[in-house]
Amino acid sequence: xxxxxxxxxxxxxxxxxxxxxxxxxxxxxxxxxxxxxxxxxxxxxxxxxxxxxxxxxxxxxxxxxxxxxxxxxxxxxxxxxxxxxxxxxxxxxxxxxxxxxxxxxxxxxxxxxxxxxxxxxxxxxxxxxxxxxxxxxxxxxxxxxxxxxxxxxxxxxxxxxxxxxxxxxxxxxxxxxxxxxxxxxxxxxxxxxxxxxxxxxxxxxxxxxxxxxxxxxxxxxxxxxxxxxxxxxxxxxxxxxxxxxxxxxxxxxxxxxxxxxxxxxxxxxxxxxxxxxxxxxxxxxxxxxxxxxxxxxxxxxxxxxxxxxxxxxxxxxxxxxxxxxxxxxxxxxxxxxxxxxxxxxxxxxxxxxxxxxxxxxxxxxxxxxxxxxxxxxxxxxxxxxxxxxxxxxxxxxxxxxxxxxxxxxxxxxxx
Length: 415
Ligand SMILES: Cc1cc2nc3c(=O)[nH]c(=O)nc-3n(C[C@H](O)[C@H](O)[C@H](O)COP(=O)(O)OP(=O)(O)OC[C@H]3O[C@@H](n4cnc5c(N)ncnc54)[C@H](O)[C@@H]3O)c2cc1C
Known about the structure:
With 415 residues, this protein is an alpha/beta fold. The protein is 31% helix and 25% strand. The chain is built from 10 helices and 27 strands. Strands 5-2-1-9-21-20 form a 6-stranded mixed β-sheet, covered by helices on one side. It has a 4-stranded parallel β-sheet with strand order 13-12-11-17. Helix 1 (10-19) packs parallel to helix 8 (312-330).
């Protein structure tokens, strides 16, 4: 049996591992990138806390111990469901089962032209570009003696009050308070303005009221203004308009929404409001029993929960489940239905505070941050030695002694 997995993110890697070294199964995993990315820590690359290689690992090395898995860096272009083949930018590949795990991309809700002035955070390239913009803004503020220009350079607007927006806003707050105050002599940290904009009534809407309010208080202590019920109506290279208010800044970061990729357009699948493919209980596409969809690409409704959110644990559980279901079928057993086990949610605010909600358990502050840290290290599998990463990262993160504060040019050019 040949199982093709498209996408080496959380869902794809977990599916592959569950199929690794299994008898009578040959697996091909394709990904347009050569690395698996730990997206929950992307904001730390964007905020110069970690280097890209600390949160990304070659897919090939993660799966090298499995003799039956072949990894190809290539892009899924199309699916021919009648002939059980996928078209890639390299060659056509035939499958018996296909697992789609291509994830999602940033969406600007029809204003895609905003992207160049308000980068999203989904890839290493975007994270290093955000890092370049934020660090350059500090350098620009240092160069000028004009308070108005300093104000312009030190104004940051983050759009989207979900965990990513909160993490970015908190990290910029910490950076301006500590890094700017300590390492820069001319730029005035007091002129820094950080606005977190959310169109809905609350930031962190999935969390309980108590934790949401705690997060707002912690953000405000870091100098972040939280604007809820506020909609961005325009962005250009020198300003952002929120409702009727125009704010002068070139530092706008977008954390407002994601949309699923469209790898199966020609199947004409039913999709939800996020463009995710609506799947059956066994995660297959209705009418296509041998094509499964997992992770951010799948729209799965579960009793008592509703539509599952685009989260790493959902993707991991679906990837593993899907692989095991295929193995069941190959071994003559019936397929099972997927059921998500909710392991809770968490978000950090700055360097040493977080909120954690697991069922009725609600934690905040430093202790919650320690839990956040341990869980992230635990899942950062395959990334060097966990203990080493833990020590190194905790030290540089808490002490500000190190970090990856490098401004790299957008493109290579000779001097
Ligand atoms: C900044 C950020 C912070 C986050 N924080 C959290 C958090 O704290 N907790 C949490 O649970 N979740 C978090 N998430 C969400 C979580 O990362 C996603 O839910 C998870 O990555 C989804 O896994 P996936 O395998 O479906 O997709 P992905 O991990 O996105 O992987 C998709 C893979 O498919 C590849 N691909 C895409 N298109 C193609 C194609 N056409 N051909 C070949 N390959 C393709 C991509 O290169 C990628 O490797 C965060 C996401 C972001 C962006």
